[in-house]
Structure formats: structure tokens, C-alpha cells
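We were asked to recover a plausible sequence for a given structure. The inputs and outputs are reproduced exactly as logged, with field labels preserved.

PROBLEM: sequence recovery
POSITIONS: 370
GIVEN STRUCTURE:
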């Protein structure tokens, strides 16, 4: 199960509404339950699952907000503790490091075109308090530039495309902003570019005025909650609570749902200390991945090896597509066990950079051999 309808309500106003909560949450160690699924490298099949949040009752109210706040709380991964070492070891066994499995990954890529998909926040840049200061390091930028020189490369992010471009500043990449709802091809110097088209796909165009309106309303409404930040990601919005005192999370959740009650065509999901508001259309990072593979001419090809690296629940949509296609690998960036459809893991952006550099070195040496 990926989503759950949850009813949240305000005890004071008596207002209640149903929201969609993504169930791809970090797993608390005590709740980890193994369930069969193909494991990389043929090990015992396993996937870590979290018991579903139960649908909350419509009457009353306080309890429901508490459940929503619990869900907000679980969007920040727990710290690794010594008693969880066993769980961690087992998880790593079934989602091994992409660095330690590098040779196997390379073996599978034989005769195939690698296509790279990279999430931005928490993958190419470390998670920081201020979303406007989530800068990519020069070293990481160089690694991404090098990777794009050898393989078609896309950044797939929840951010507004223009904003992520301002961070990355590489015109040779594909960019899929707003959770894949705004896709643009490279503007220059890429041999994989398709024709002269640059803006390739914007399936949520009709939602622009609505998103703008909701952005303005939320800016106004959330002013009273210190630390809350509303970010306009063009085709979707983020309401950040990383800097909000925990005792005020419920208040913020109520504000958000009060605004959303007038917009049934928008849905609410959760990321890392962020409430994400987006159109109800069926389009996510998984669709963006498929769209880009198709644009590159690999819709039905066996000669392609897509590699998707991401840290967030929204990246799970892309990992799932890869599993369904039986093609390529998802790599989850995480230091702690989480329910995931990814095959491999990397602990943090630094390891992502090491992986990218290693891929470039391998490609260069294989070119030298031929
Ligand atoms: O798909 P992504 O590239 O991972 O974008 C998802 C959200 O990322 C950003 O928020 C996250 O990173 C911030 C900076 O490190 C951090 O402060 C915040 O708590 C995280 O949730 C971005 O600001 C959001 O708009 C994206 O939706």
C-alpha cells in the first residue's frame, strides 16, 4: 500500500477533512516486518514494511490531529541506536551498499546504455534547515557534470525546475521539476538531446492558477506559526515544518487542511519534514522516469540500464517503476532502515558522489580499452 486516506480535524471549528498520506515512511525499528520480495544478488527475499496508519474516525477531532502529528514526526528518520544494530545489519544485507556492489552493477550494465536519474535534496545536497540554502558542492557539481558527459542524466525533484537549475547550473542535464510535472531537456551540448524541443512535458499546466492562489493563501495563513515556510514549486507547494516547534505542528496541519478543504483537486502528501500539496493527477517521479526513457528512445528497449538515486518517499514511485520494468536499479540514500523498493543503498550525498565518480572512472577506463 502506498497511500492511505486519513481524516484530520480541528476540535475548535469542528471541521474535518480527508487527506491522502503517503505510506512510504521511515520504519521505526520495532515495527520492521519482513515480507517476501526479490532481493538483489539472490539473497533471502525481504522488504521492510511499516504497519499502515489506520483510517481515522470522522467524529471527535483531537485524536485525529494527534495521528497526523505522529505521521509528521515519523517523517524524520530515527537515529541509529545500539539495540537496532541487528535490524540494521539485516536491512543492509538485503539492501547492500551500491559502492560495495559496484562490480555487480557494472556486470549487469554490459551492452546496455546506462541512464542516470538523480533526486536533488538529500541526494546531491545535504538536508539543511533553510530550503533556499540547500547548495550543491562544487565537487558534487563536477561529479554530475562528468556523469552527464558519459550517460544521459536527469535531475528528478520535488523542487521548482528553475530553482533546482539555479543550484545545479548544468545545462547538459534533463530536469524534471515539481515531482516530475515539469520536464525540460538539455539546453546545450548534449549528444542525447532529442531534436530542438526543450520543454518536453507539463501535464499539470491547468493547475497553475490554482497552485498560485493556494500559495498566496497559505503564505498568509501560516504567518502565525513561527518557523513555517511555504515554498512555491510551480506545479506543487511545500509547507516546511523543520523549523517549527513540535508543539505547533498540529496548528500548522490544521491551517493547511483548512485551506485545502476548498480545493478537492489538490492532494496532500508528506516528505522529509514537509507537507506537499499537489494536483490529484496520476503523475509522479515514476511517470517522469518512464517519460524520459521514452524520450531517449528506450521505451521498450532491453538495451538500457536506468539507475535512479533518491532519498525520499516520492522517489519510491520511481523505484517501483524500475522493479516493475525489471530493469535497472533504485538506490536509496539513507543511513537508517526504511521500507523501500530500491535494490541498493548509499548512506549520504558524499557516498552518492563517490558512486558517480566511480562510474565515470569505470567508463573512462573501458573507453581506453577499446
Ligand atoms: O525531490 P527532492 O529534490 O528531494 O525535493 C523534495 C523537497 O526537498 C526540499 O525540502 C527538503 O530539503 C530541504 C533542504 O535541505 C529541507 O529543509 C526540508 O526539510 C526537506 O523536506 C524542498 O525544499 C521541497 O520543496 C521539496 O519538495
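RECOVERED SEQUENCE:
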Amino acid at each position: 500500500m502506498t497511500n492511505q486516506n486519513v481524516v484530520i480535524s480541528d476540535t475548535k471549528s469542528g471541521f474535518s477533512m480527508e487527506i491522502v498520506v503517503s505510506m512510504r515512511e521511515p520504519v521505526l525499528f520495532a515495527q520492521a516486518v519482513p515480507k517476501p520480495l526479490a532481493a538483489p544478488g539472490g539473497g533471502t527475499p525481504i522488504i521492510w514494511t511499516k504497519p499502515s496508519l489506520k483510517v481515522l474516525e470522522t467524529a471527535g477531532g483531537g485524536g485525529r490531529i494527534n495521528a497526523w502529528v505522529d505521521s509528521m514526526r515519523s517523517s524524520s528518520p530515527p537515529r541509529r541506536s545500539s539495540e537496532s544494530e541487528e535490524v540494521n545489519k539485516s536491512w543492509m544485507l538485503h539492501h547492500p551498499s551500491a559502492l560495495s556492489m559496484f562490480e555487480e552493477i557494472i556486470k549487469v550494465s554490459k551492452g546496455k546504455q546506462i541512464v542516470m536519474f538523480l533526486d536533488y535534496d538529500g541526494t546531491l545536497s545535504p538536508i539543511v534547515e533553510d530550503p533556499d540554502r540547500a547548495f550543491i558542492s562544487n565537487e558534487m557539481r563536477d561529479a554530475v557534470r562528468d556523469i552527464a558527459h558519459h550517460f544521459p542524466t536527469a535531475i528528478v525533484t520535488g523542487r521548482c525546475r528553475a530553482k533546482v537549475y539555479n543550484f545545479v547550473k548544468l545545462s547538459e542535464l534533463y530536469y524534471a521539476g515539481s515531482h516530475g510535472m515539469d520536464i525540460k531537456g538539455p539546453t546545450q551540448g548534449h549528444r542525447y538531446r532529442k531534436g530542438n524541443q526543450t520543454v518536453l512535458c507539463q501535464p499539470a499546466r491547468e493547475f497553475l492558477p490554482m497552485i498560485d492562489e493556494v500559495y498566496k493563501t497559505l503564505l498568509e495563513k501560516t504567518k502565525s506559526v513561527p518557523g513555517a515556510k511555504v515554498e512555491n514549486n510551480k506545479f506543487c507547494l511545500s509547507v516546511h515544518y523543520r523549523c517549527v516547534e513540535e508543539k505547533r505542528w498540529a496548528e500548522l496541519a490544521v491551517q493547511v487542511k483548512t485551506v485545502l478543504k476548498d480545493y478537492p483537486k489538490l492532494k496532500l502528501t508528506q516528505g522529509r519534514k514537509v507537507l506537499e500539496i499537489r494536483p490529484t493527477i496520476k503523475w509522479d517521479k515514476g511517470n517522469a522516469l518512464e517519460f524520459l526513457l521514452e524520450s531517449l528512445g528506450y521505451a521498450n528497449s532491453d538495451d538500457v540500464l536506468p539507475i535512479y538515486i533518491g532519498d525520499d518517499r516520492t522517489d519510491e514511485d520511481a523505484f517501483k517503476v524500475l522493479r516493475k520494468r525489471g530493469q535497472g536499479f533504485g538506490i536509496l540514500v539513507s543511513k537508517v532502515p526504511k521500507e523501500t523498493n530500491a535494490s541498493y543503498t548509499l548512506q549520504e550525498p558524499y557516498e552518492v558522489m563517490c558512486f558517480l565518480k566511480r562510474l565515470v572512472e569505470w567508463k573512462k577506463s573501458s573507453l581506453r580499452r577499446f
